[in-house]
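Pipeline run #58 for the internal structure catalog. This entry was flagged by the ingest filter as a single-chain record with no existing model, so it goes straight to prediction. Upstream metadata was stripped on purpose; only the residue string is passed forward. Reviewer on rotation: M.T. Logging verbosity set to normal.
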Amino acid sequence: MKWPARLASAIALTWVCAPGVWAAEGSNDPDSSQAPTHMIEAPARIVDEADGVPRYTRELTSSVFTIDRILKSMQGPDELATVALWQEPAVPELLWITGYRAVMTESDAVTQISPEFMCHSNLILSDGAAYHERFPSRLRVRADRLFSLDQGSLSIEFPEGTGIPIMSDQMVQFNPQVLNHNVVGDPFQVRQKVYVDFVRDADLPKPLIPLVQHGAFGMVLMEGDDGHYDMSPEEVETTEHGPGCSLGEDVGHPQGQFVDSQGRKFSLFWKVPPGRQESHTRVTPRLDLPYDTTLHFATAHLHPFAESLELRDVTTNETVFIARTKQADQGIGLKSVTQFSSAEGVPMYRDHEYDLISIYDNTSGEEQDAMATMFLYLRAKDLYDFDFRPRKK
């Protein structure tokens, strides 16, 4: 395969991923005799050990995706595959997911390439209802997504002593998507490879702190007189509830549109004109915290030209976390997005108001698309007693 010169070498990442051992299954991919073109699953394997506890990873590689033109966010090829994290032993057991990582590769599924072709990598519960029956926390996700990686945020590693509980027979959906902001010319092929890191509860001397993922979504107001989501104008106090969403233009993805209890229409996916744009969204009702808790990990989903995304406690006028970006060294893209990680955690309160503030600085000279989502991994304080947990004697 002939790559553009600046993409020919593998990208050096801040963490090391060991390539899997690929079975010789044959291929109709003329550029590779080592890997098939469809999705590849490698069995879960032990990758290291900490304090006598084996650490496992499950490796999944997407089908081959062909890129033949400029493809912005949410426009590139994707797929949805249902898999199990662990298939041994036959009796279901408790696992703890401790991380999720991704790389982009050539069609051989081994050679790493630029992460600029990453749109997102989602890991989703296949049967959310069954999961919530087993883990009936009141701090439950509105969607069934466990993780979402994207350009600039290619790995999640929870702080020591924390994790997402999941039963070994729980099916999950792997949803990779690619994009292309910069490369024009002949079509080329890419893949996305992910690693799901976990430990077995049976190997632990004590349970981990259980985490639940919550999403705080930035929005713009498409229709309506006031941008305070789910509040009537009579309820709004600007000093108490923040400024509310600004009027904006939707990009045209119906799945990203919401109508609140007041009949106002909002969008999660909007257009940013050239120049600097600051957007505010009241996220208190979507967080819907059932009790005071602590935040242990946070990461942000942003598009190119984003400068920062801040979660602000309006009640105390303090920043909970601000994600800052670095733009790609050349072309359009995000090089990095900062994350929050704390074993101790920072408090979040049921009776506080929270605002999400995104800043985009569109220097391209033309309109660009935008999103602003913060994924919050919160302590599920009501998930401590598992009657199915086989404890060591």
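catalog note: Residues 182 and 331 are 6 Å apart (CA to CA).
catalog note: The longest helix spans residues 128-134.
status: ready for reviewer M.T.
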